[in-house]
Amino acid sequence: MNVKKRLLDGARMTRAIRRMAIEILEKNRGTQDLMIVGIRSRGVPIAERIAKEIEQMEAHPVPFGIIDITLYRDDLTTIAPQPVVKPTKLPEPIDDKIVVLVDDVLYTGRTVRAALDALIDFGRPKSVMLAVLIDRGHRELPIHADVIGKTVPTDADEVIKVKMAETDGEDEVLIMEK
Amino acid sequence: MRAETSSLRSKDLLGIEHLVPDEITLILDTAEGFKEVSERPVKKVPALRGQLVINLFMEASTRTRVSFEIAEKRLSADTLNFAASGSAVEKGETLIDTAENLMAMAPDMIVIRHKHPGAPKMLAERLPASIINAGDGAHEHPTQALLDAFTIRERLGRLAGVKVSIVGDIAHSRVVRSNIHLLTKMGAKVTLAAPPSLMPVEVERMGVRVVSSLDAAIDDADVIMMLRIQLERQGKLSFPSLREYYNTFGLTPDRLRRAKEGVIVMHPGPMNRGVEIASDVADGPWSVILNQVTNGVAVRMAVLYLLGGAHGEA
After folding, report:
1. What is the mean pLDDT of chain A?
2. Does B306 share its domain with B218?
3. Domain of B239?
4. For residue B203, what is the domain's CATH number?
5. Which of B25, B30, B35, B64 is catalytic?
6. A83 and B CB contact within 8 Å
7. How many Å lie between the alpha carbon of B198 and the closest alpha carbon of chain A?
8. A/B interface, count of CB pairs below 8 Å
């Protein structure tokens, strides 16, 4: 795969995540009942950084969790081998919480559909918001993001590669050609 | 410790003998994810929705059958329980005929317990469904060994280098065979102890150490695994009396005084209290016996999940 364009470098990613944190606080008028939940795997470091930004701005921590959506995928019976399953870790019951789901890229919307189903098995949140670093379009389900780091029009044969320092050694977002 | 592979090579789980260490690690890692499912308010995930699992138990079993059934239900599979008693088996139907009839109902997986070693393998070779061995005679009981390993790893953080002593009815035990295969593959050091009449000849060739006394097995062990005296599999007792067995090979708090700090005691169940294990040990601080039962569901979910789904095109 060839790199077509660098969408974000480290500094721009940091600013985008900071702005996402501010937007989350604005939309919810603070941190009351807020819980940040990252979708495995690239949603987790982004969610962690959003939670950290919020903590710095508000001077107190906000609950942070991890959700694994593997078992809720709609293609489990058609793909092989079976994708790797990891635990979901939520810090406290989600009942009556405002849950902010965080992922790296919003594309077809199928991951978010699975995440919503997974989340509901843990309780009944007051509301659920979606925050994504990149929205690349091409939705196959009626799902939209409430907070977006960067909107990028893409072709279906392009691939968005999000790299995070925590998992990939550096921060950057690339657009690749198949 | 993370698995390098992301799939099992076979469509079936017939035993531990033919698994490679990476496959074992994959199953144990996957089971960690599934353990969390059992702690949720809604203990069910849609992973095996629409798949039919037949539980074919041709030999008595409570714990294993119930554990598999819970695992299947938590994965949203449809389950059908089939026992030998009250079925056409009593009317003389052969295992192959039974299986082919069940196959006509298009199950995706069959969990089988059978008194004859190799019965699961015979089904696996003839049927397209995934076959999971839930115990075949004195051959193997792979999910028991996997849940034992999961429990050890959970408690001690590793398998490599762990010293595991297995005590009791070695000769009649399928659990011990699966455990020896698994533990030696993963780098644990296995010691066996039993009266000579319950110790198979040349068992050392499986890469284990054999000692003749319980004390020698307790010394230095990180894990002590007690096996049930299988009264039903012995023509007659292989030792003078149950009382004498308890006195020489029964695990008591007194005996455990020479054990290492932090030793854990395991038992695959069902226990004969006062034969191979004292109640004060079974219910004591060393015991992880009930953790084994809980972990059994997670491990079986992992196996069902990894064998479920699409086949062939990987």
Report:
1. 95
2. no
3. 142-293
4. 3.40.50.1370
5. B64
6. yes
7. 41
8. 70
The answer to whether B41 contacts A84, with C-beta atoms less than 8 Å apart, is no
- Interchain contact, A121 vs B40, CB within 8 Å: yes
Does B289 or B232 have the greater pLDDT score? Answer: B289
Question: In this structure, are residues A118 and A73 in contact, taking their beta carbons and an 8 Å threshold?
Answer: no
Q: Is A68 on the interface with B (CB under 8 A)?
A: yes
Q: Cα–Cα distance between B229 and B238 in angstroms, integer?
A: 10
Catalytic residue check, B9? no
Whether this model's ipTM surpasses 0.90 comes out as no
For the stretch B229-278, pLDDT in tens is 877 666 667 788 888 999 999 999 999 999 999 999 999 989 999 999 99
For A27-83, give the DSSP string.
Answer: HHTSSTTEEEEEETTTHHHHHHHHHHHHHHHHSS---EEEE--GGG-TTTTTSSSPP
Tokens 């929705």 -> residue: B49
Residue pLDDT, tens place only, B28-86: 999 999 999 999 989 999 999 999 999 999 988 889 999 999 999 999 999 999 887 76
Given the residues B63, B115, B209, B260, the one annotated as active site: B63
CA distances from A151 to A105, A147, A160 (A): 10, 10, 12
Closest-approach residue (CA) in chain A for B74: A71
pLDDT tens-place string over residues B15-24: 999 999 999 9
* Full-model pTM: 0.91
Same domain, B178 and B275: yes
Residues B197, B237 within the same domain = yes
